[in-house]
């Protein structure tokens, strides 16, 4: 059964379980204290928000997302599916992002994509479903699973902040690649999403800056 990180209490219980599973995490938790749960809007809006912000500065992403939200009331998959591409372009969306959002909207409309199913699938299967969509890379898929769906085992192996935190926290000689991050996290299943919260908190402490979208 998939754990969902739906509350701070659930996250804290998961972190305590992780520390019991892997005692190497105890000193990490001592440094960070309990991480705060981070959640973003679920459903199509949450995924669209992440897509809109890909490869942009925080300020630019926020400005474009604000315009997109303001242009559609309600903001949902049907509205994006029906919207003209030139209208979306005038809001600041690139052609590639328009293609991505419209494809997701069509998949939802045809019931070929279901976010409730994704939330309860094995994390690796859910990751594969999302990355099969055009314009959805591994980082976007993992951030969506973790922050929008609260998937307790989502593991952002390609996130540079998590990689750097794992390197420092586990005393590795070099920063692990996304491929190397998978076996490193194997022992944290089915709580890899909680582990990611802990490592992001550790990155914030050691680097004095945030490591992921809030």
The residue-averaged pLDDT reads 93
Radius of gyration: 18 Å
Low-pLDDT windows of residues: none
H/E element order:
HHHHHHHHHHHHH
Q: Gap between N and C termini, in Å?
A: 27 Å
**Share of residues in helices:** 55-70%
Protein name: DNA-3-methyladenine glycosylase II
Catalytic activity: Hydrolysis of alkylated DNA, releasing 3-methyladenine, 3-methylguanine, 7-methylguanine and 7-methyladenine
Keywords: DNA damage, DNA repair
Organism: Bradyrhizobium aeschynomenes
What this model shows, in words?
The protein is built from 13 helices and no strands. It has helices at residues 8-21, 26-32, 43-52, 58-71, 77-82, 85-90, 95-109, 115-120, 123-131, 138-148, 160-170, 178-184, 192-207. The longest helix has 16 residues, at 192-207.
Strand-helix topology:
Elements: H1 8-21, H2 26-32, H3 43-52, H4 58-71, H5 77-82, H6 85-90, H7 95-109, H8 115-120, H9 123-131, H10 138-148, H11 160-170, H12 178-184, H13 192-207
Q: What is this entry, summarized?
A:
The chain has 214 residues and is an all-alpha fold. It has helices spanning 8-21, 26-32, 43-52, 58-71, 77-82, 85-90, 95-109, 115-120, 123-131, 138-148, 160-170, 178-184, 192-207. Residues 52-203 form the HhH-GPD domain.
């Amino acid at each position: 059964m998939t754990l969902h990180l739906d509350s701070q209490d659930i996250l804290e219980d998961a972190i305590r379980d992780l520390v019991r599973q892997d005692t190497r995490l105890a000193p990490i938790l001592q440094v960070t204290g309990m991480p705060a749960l981070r959640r973003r809007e679920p459903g199509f809006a949450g995924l669209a928000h992440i897509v809109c912000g890909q490869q942009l500065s925080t300020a630019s992403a926020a400005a474009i997302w604000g315009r997109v939200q303001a242009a559609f009331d309600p903001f949902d998959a049907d509205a994006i599916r029906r919207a003209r591409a030139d209208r979306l372009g005038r809001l600041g969306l690139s052609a590639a992002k328009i293609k991505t959002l419209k494809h997701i909207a069509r998949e939802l409309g045809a019931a070929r994509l279901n976010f409730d199913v994704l939330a309860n699938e094995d994390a690796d299967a859910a990751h594969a479903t999302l990355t099969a969509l055009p314009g959805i890379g591994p980082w976007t898929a993992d951030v969506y699973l973790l922050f929008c769906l609260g998937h307790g085992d989502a593991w952002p192996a390609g996130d540079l902040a998590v990689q750097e935190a794992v390197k420092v926290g586990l005393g590795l000689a070099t920063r692990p690649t996304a491929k190397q991050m998978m076996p490193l996290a194997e022992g944290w299943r089915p709580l890899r999403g909680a582990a990611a919260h802990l490592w992001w908190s550790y990155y914030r402490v050691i680097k004095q800056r945030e490591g992921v979208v809030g």
